[in-house]
Amino acid sequence: MSPARVLQTVVVVALLVTAAVGCGGSSGGGSGSTTTAGATTAAANERLSAAQWQSYESAAKSFKAANTEANARLKKCPVPANGQTSGSYSVCLGDSLTNLQAETKSAAALLTSLGPSTAGACETALGDLLNYMTPYQGSVQALQQAIKTNNASQTTHYAQAVQTTAQNARQQLSGFESSCAPA
Fold first, then answer.
1. Which of 153, 154, 115, 150 is nearest to 131 (CA)?
2. What is the structure's pLDDT at 132?
3. What is the dihedral of CA 126, 130, 136, 140, to 10 degrees?
4. Are the C-beta atoms of residues 13 and 105 closer than 8 Å to each other?
């Protein structure tokens, strides 16, 4: 699988996270590059098969549950102020970020595997979705590291980055689902 497909998969997971949060999308200010999948710009839209869509829905359900939980806890748990340790913040978050990372990786792997069977608008929408996965996954990892090292300012920054990236990905998820669902 090409590096572009792997990157695209990561973006899809970020979009799934956004959908699970239920936040409104943003048409601007997204972080991440745009990668268009494949060289089939003139190809007809090749949607996912019913079996592929069922696999996607199953992965999306698990991902959305983990994403909803993690983002709810990010909103609920008080972020430590400068000079404070992040121990209570970590306890409040529980393993929601670890679970989110696992579900994000799983969803990204599935989405990446779907890429070769797509073409046209579905392929483009999948690529757009995957382009949000890497920044989202990176933000979650950076937040986990900031918490681990008791860096309050970075913890605040990355907690906001996780939520912002999820919001920006919502539009891409909608495009993927409308372009790739079986007809």
1. 115
2. 83
3. 110
4. yes
